[in-house]
Structures are given as structure tokens and as C-alpha cells.
Amino acid sequence: MAELRHSSSVGARASSSPMKRDEDASPLIHGTTHDDDHRHHFSRDRDRSFWSFLSDDPRVFSLLNSKISLFLVAVFAIVGLISAFSIFNRLNAPYLCKKDGIVLHCPHVNEAPSLWENPYSATTSWKPCAERRDNGISDLPPENETNGYIFIHAEGGLNQQRIAICNAVAVAKIMNATLILPVLKQDQIWKDQTKFEDIFDVDHFIDYLKYDVRIVRDIPEWFTDKSELFTSIRRTVKNIPKYAPAQFYIDNVLPRIKEKKIMALKPFVDRLGYDNVPPEINRLRCRVNYHALKFLPEIEEMSDLLVSRMRNRTGVSNPYMALHLRFEKGMVGLSFCDFVGTRDEKARMGEYRKKEWPRRYKNGSHLWQLALQKRKEGRCPLEPGEVAVILRAMGYPKETQIYVASGQVYGGQNRMAPLKNMFPSLVTKEELATKEELDGFRKHVTSLAALDFLVCLKSDVFVMTHGGNFAKLIIGARRYTGHLHKSIKPDKGLMSKSFGDPYMGWATFVEDVIVTHQTRTGLPEETFPNYDLWENPLTPCMCRA
What we know:
By secondary structure, this protein is an alpha/beta fold.
């Protein structure tokens, strides 16, 4: 401190004797200072004469003030216009959620939350735009100039077959080929011999797409050996990779079609990509899915009857929820997840898995860790009781009318008891319709699946409990028609943590459920690369309303 005070006093003394500092200064510096003083006096005199000139002439001063005022007004006007334009854009921007990692951020709305509908602004921002234009002009070449014919087997259940049909039309367009009406191949699980014309309106399908792709009902008559198309390797393209780009078909499949004139493509499950095909091809797939593929009138009429009965179960008009409950024995076994049950029940499920999936089962020693990991990652089907607790936490009351689309639930009535106790107004199509009404649809399993599909599609709220093409196509169709009604996709990973927390109270659980699912209701969001458009068709197939 003493040294600091000493230094300060020395500095003070040095700065208090300017005369001595000037005497010690260099003559060069001293001379420069004199010139600077001279220029300073000259500048000051010039400025004084300028301002005295202005003060002597009031007209000049007034003119200068006017120009400054005009300049300031112009600046404020430009800033105001920019601000107004920004506010206008913000007010008129379409409702669109943005994804940040796995979190979806949606615009804030000044609306009270509804159990049955999405925010109004979300339902008025986007409209479908994949439909066929009226008075369309076909760009198809004459029939005798087609590059050839392609034939596919649409495999799997109804919804997997639907996707295959959409992809077949797109592939035919890519190669400028004629599409032979797809065959719905018998599935090992469904055991169904349904034909295309048993489910879909063939005339509408061909007519609606007549400006896009040429479609024929059957193999051309000049091709005599039709069995060859089903059995011969020479007539089959088998090396198509999953999610193949459009260019693959042009480079590898088209030359063989031109050579052989008719070729079968198989297998054809997921054999066309999404972000590696032109946008107009994705738009065409939407056109097929949402406009060209219509169920037969009798299926549509029966579904409307079921919907009407669901909406009038209380004696007055009421909304209803559709629940796609995926808890059949096959789904439980294939998931390799662990579920609540007796020791004997778990042993029987172990034997079932060992028989059906021996390569995955191995010796069974790794399955417990696998089950824990899958549940943590949200890859296990929700049990009926878990669904009931989630819906109650969301705020749906005991009187909620629920239509259940499901196969034979694993565990039967005992497994369904918690859901039925919390929501007793729960029905299936078998309980909603008479046996005689459904008899006409029982000869085709896919007809019954089509009824479930349409009743779920037209519901006020749709809830899925596990993945699959059924839920994916319904959520996508509900988005395409305007995002009006909720399509709830539970966060199974987060729910598994909440269900496994013995210290979490009901109030905390309710808060977690509500906050987590605010944006998981089928709201508008961009279709991301590598993300199939069946669940979210917005980017390629919808426009600003």
C-alpha cells in the first residue's frame, strides 16, 4: 500500500508541472503543435462564419430543417412498413410445428384445450392438393408405345397391400409402363383369398388415374402362357432393394421390361423410397392413396351405419373415440417384451416364441435384458390397462364412447377388465352390428378390416397403441383431410418410466401425460427426409389453405 501511494504521488507531481514537460519536449514536436493550433483556429473561424451565414439567412435554415424532417419521416415510414409486414406475415403464417431432435415445437394459440379437436388455426392452415385436376391433359404416350407391362403381388394384410398398390402405380409412372391390376396375395397370417375387386372400386381406380398411368384389368390376351408370369424366373425381377430410388428402376428394371414386354416384380414390399424419388411421384402416391383407392359402396355404407350408431349411443349426438388395440397373441409374442402375468402364462408364452421365432429365441437367456431395453425405448405394445390410465389422465371421462378395433386380445376378458372398468361404454363392430349385418363381410377378412379402418378414420379421436400400417395410414389420412380431429400417438418410452416409478403421485402423472401429449395429436409438421409419407403427407401432398 505504501508503494502504491508513493507511485500515485510521483505521478501527480509529474502531471502538475506542464511547463517543465514542454521545455523538455523535442523541438520537432513543439513545432508540430504550433501548426496544429494554427489549423484549429482556422477551422473554428470557418465554422463560425458558416453558422453565422445560416443565422443571417433564415430561408436556408428553414429549408435545411424541412429536408431533415422529410428524411426522418421517410426513415420512420420504412421501419413501420417493415414492422407491419413482419407482423402480417407472422399472423398469416400457416400453423406448422418444427422438430428439434425428438421434441416437436408447435405455435402458441390462445384457445382453451379441447379433448376432441386440434387448435382451430392448425385445421385451417393446410389443404389437400394431390387430387386430380379437372380437364387434365394426359402426358401418356399412345398404348402401342408403352415400354411394357408390370405385374405385382400385393402381399400382407389390407394396409400393407394398399401401400404396395400405391407404389406400383408410382413405379409404372417412373418407367412409363402399363400396370396390370395388382393381385392381392394370400397372406400366411390372414389366410385370405380376397381379390382387388372384392375390396376396391376398380372402375374408379382406373378412371381416376387415367391421366397418370395406363392400368389394365388383366394380362394382355397376346401373352398366352399366363402361368409363366407367376412361376418363371425369366419373367421376374427379384433384385430390387428396399426403398430403392427412382433411378434404380430406370437403370435396372426398365431394360428388362423393354426386352421381355411383361415382367413381374417380387417381392414388392417397401421397394420404393421417399426422399430419393421426384416430388411429383410422391404426390402421385398420395393421389392413389387418398383419391383413387375407394372401398366398394357396400363397405362404405356399412361403415357409415356403424359410425352413425357410435355417434348416437347416448340418445343424443355424441363424439366417439376409436382405439386401435394391438395386443393379439402374435403381436405380444413377436414383440419379445415382458408383460404382467402368472408364471404359468409366461412359460407358455416362452414356448410359443421358441416355436415361432427360434432364431430370435435362441436359448432364452438374453430375453429378459432385451425386454427391459425394448420397454425403455418405447417399443412394446401398450397393455389395455395402461391405455385406460393414460386416457383418464388426459381427461377423458368414464362416459366416453370408445370403438375398439382389435383382433383377439391376448389374455381375454381378464386382460381387458381394467380398460372396461374405467371406460364401460366400449364396443367392437361385433357388438355394434347384428350377426346378419356382418355375415356378408365375413367371407373376406380384409372386408372386416376395411370396416375397422373406416370407422377409425371417421372418429373424433383416434388412439393408437403400437406401430403398424393400419395406424400409420389412418393418421396420415386424418392429417391430409385437414388435421381437424386428434390422432393420439402415446409416448410409450416416457410412459414406461412413469408406470415404473413407485413414488410418482397421480397429480404428477397427469401433468406429465398432458404436457407430453400436447403435440402428439396429428398436428401439421413437415415430412422429413427418410420419413414415409403415409403417416405425414404434408410436404409433398398439401398446400397452404
